[in-house]
């Protein structure tokens, strides 16, 4: 069969003619070999023979060995043969030919796969750094640059036309990053969802496409072989600007930025989140395959994702691709903005598509729909209810990886920021387990527990004598306890089949021999008030280790085990104190080894992660419902991010315009709230009977709903560590005011779930003191319908703050207050548009960011039509940008771009050059010009005119806008000068050697004549920084400018003064520099003579 399969594959490959550069594909002289001719244009024809090693294992466990029989093959092809053949082990012949030809094409185009340039040995430090990341791409050659740039401009313009902010980072001639972004506020996500996802509306969601070998189009990427390395890597994150700094991308910044840049660039970092991290993995692992399936079969995004999932681990029949389920149309929330729903892929062929645009459209789709997909396996989740927070699917493996990899919001952060919420969630879960209703259990996590009932696999126990004073156990028999294990201690007269309450839990600290065991301070579990919580001294105890697999238990025993684990935890505020005991970073709970059992920590993390509602404790009276003394109040939001928009839509259709909504209470037993907070209010399960029909039961009278809280009792159990000691919970909900359409009016029975929005959750309990009535009302109160008024515990109407209505009216009220203040007209306009609600969002929302904050190089690239055009337009934009910067800051009389090259004399540009120095200087120059374009000129105090730089080894710098109180500034003004002109010449070993900096004009009073400014008599700068003794190769040029300017402004021991408006000859500056180095004992750079001789 292997030989038959191989012959068939060879026959198919010969007939398909899908390899345009291959000819004469045939069976070789031996049965396990093939031969073919590779041709590229008219300059290369190479004959190859390929041996199939272990051919009897074809097509699963064989390998290929290819060699050229043609003489004098190019070095790039020879190098290729040494490196890529192992990539195709176990691949079919078709895949091998496709991938091998793709590598040959790249080698032919690039001559040599990223061959090392002849860089001087002295520059090894930087060249090594540039090779650190992306070693896996070392075989990939570069493509034609002019073609790349033309395609890049076209693709970026397409993304910009679709409403996105675009830009790039790095060198367009080499390694660089494309950035595509849009503001979070324009995505149509509710305020509650943004809070739950921990995103800020004014921030950007940013997609970065990293190209280590130059730009590649979508057509190029989807048409390359499956075994070829992807020429792009994608990153997704959040940023306060439309593109981040390169230093915030650890894997790439050494490739695309120069040393020291971060000190002068904005601190805008790319920040990951529990939503963007899985999205980034999805893009890099599946995006290209999903796009290929869409282009090949015409699937929708949903259909292509389903097809990809179905194809995992099996080979689909060609007829399967025609199944209707793969062609289902995309489903969107009604109020999703148009640019988020846009899909350009079906409208064009691959060569017409923009990769940045298609990747961004897919990223936004997954971001706004993140609740619908598993965070781990990326598959669609069908839970049957709407959620506000993304989670994992029902697969135990996904839950395990979710916990192990730390996906979702950080546990310690939730405990520190919302301890009352954590206490409440744990209490609800405990009550549900005690009632035997906890059906969604944390299985698949590998938890070890003890069990209070006999099971077929109960771990054996041993007897020991406890010494509470020394916290030791003296075992009376053999055991297999290990350090770090958790154990349960029962009184010796309790049988294994009895309940584990009461008992003690502890961890093993030391095992000295087979009898003496040191343990941590025991944690009492199940002891009643006043009951002794440890056995008497000298009493025997049974040791039951946490060896039992949680997954092996029945559901009943699993719930009991969950209760035991939760009872071993410290209270929430003790955990908060432990977390905050380490600064500046929080201390992880997992490091509290003697107080928190690992299995208990899993359960705690699971309880918080599986909560799908947004709950916030708010003790601000401005946001509290008055008349609710003795209750603790929490703001509550539930449902999908677009549920608020659907609710507003129902309000618009409501018959009551004066009072569009009413408020009603919903009560339920304590153990039921664990489910309500995950699934929302619904009537899927019959709990208290339905005397008035199907629907959500609510009431205007608090006491009516409280009666439902007591049904089933509270004997379901309380979490012993709770600081709240909750006895009841009840929610206050906003409902569309159409009682005539309710199933019943007293109590309210509402079957339309979109008519209900939960706003508050109230709890009563013994853990917090009785609170006096808060008689001060919020400044803005919602006016209730007099006919349907919500009444509190004293049967009087409650006062509901306007902020309870969320963005619908709370935000508009906020906008009104701000508009009455000192807000500018522009800000007022933005707030008015946001107050329109989610329905007012459209594709235009994404284009509200003007080009004012777009960096200069991005404008140049978008506005240019050719590489040469970039240079011409850059000069016009430079002047405009400089004028803009001047307007941003305080006034200065310096005018950039007025210095003329013929107005001063310079020595000719240096004739030396090295590859390393040239490449480094190009990066430094570009970074320096970026900073100059971005910052107000009067603040940075220096200016580099790019039109005066004809050689990267020779820069002209003007220092200007000095403090008017300085004698230097006064002298410049008196002589009618606007700046100090300096020359900076770079040596061939830069950045290992420092630049030579000298004043060209004017001439300064020398130090011997009580002049200062660190200017020598010949005009050279007298600074250790500019010698081998003080120079650091990591210094950025703008930091050198800063220190030179500080030296000029120094008044110690004397201030800098101008002697006359003359120039310093170059030879005079060189001599003065040598004298200064000798006088101070500074080392002159080894290659300074090259500067001197130039």
**How many β strands by DSSP?**
31
- Strand percentage: 15-25%
Helical residues, percent: 25-40%
Measured on Cα atoms, how large is the radius of gyration? 36 Å
Task: Tell me the strand order in the biggest sheet.
Answer: 10-11-14-13-12-16
Residue-averaged pLDDT, rounded? 79
| Low-pLDDT segments | 111-147, 257-266, 453-457, 810-848, 867-890
Q: Helix- and strand-based class? A: alpha+beta
- Helical segment tally? 31
* Sheet with most strands: 6 strands, antiparallel, barrel
The figure for the number of domains is 5
Cα distance spanning the termini:
74 Å
The shape is globular
Organism: Aspergillus niger
Keywords: Glycosyltransferase, NAD, Nucleotidyltransferase, Transferase
Biased composition (Basic and acidic residues): 772-783, 870-881
Biased composition (Low complexity): 835-846
Question: Can I get a quick summary?
Answer:
The protein is an alpha+beta fold.
Topology overview:
Layout: H1 2-16, E1 22-27, E2 33-40, E3 44-53, E4 63-68, H2 75-83, H3 93-110, H4 124-130, H5 145-161, E5 165-170, E6 176-183, H6 191-197, E7 204-211, H7 218-223, E8 233-239, H8 253-256, H9 276-297, H10 301-311, H11 338-341, H12 355-368, H13 396-404, H14 411-417, H15 419-434, E9 448-449, E10 462-467, E11 472-475, E12 486-491, E13 503-511, E14 516-519, E15 523-525, E16 540-545, E17 548-549, H16 555-568, H17 572-579, H18 598-609, E18 614-617, E19 632-637, H19 643-652, E20 661-667, H20 673-679, E21 696-698, H21 702-710, E22 726-736, E23 744-745, E24 748-750, E25 756-765, H22 810-819, H23 825-834, H24 856-863, H25 867-888, H26 915-934, H27 937-940, E26 942-944, E27 954-960, H28 967-974, E28 979-985, E29 996-1001, E30 1003-1004, H29 1037-1049, E31 1058-1060, H30 1066-1080, H31 1088-1093
Antiparallel strand pairs: 1-2, 2-3, 3-4, 5-6, 6-7, 7-8, 9-17, 10-11, 10-16, 11-14, 12-13, 12-16, 13-14, 13-15, 18-19, 19-25, 20-22, 21-24, 22-25, 23-24, 26-27, 27-28, 28-29, 30-31
Helix pairs in contact: 5-12, 9-10, 9-12, 14-15, 15-16, 16-18, 22-23, 24-25
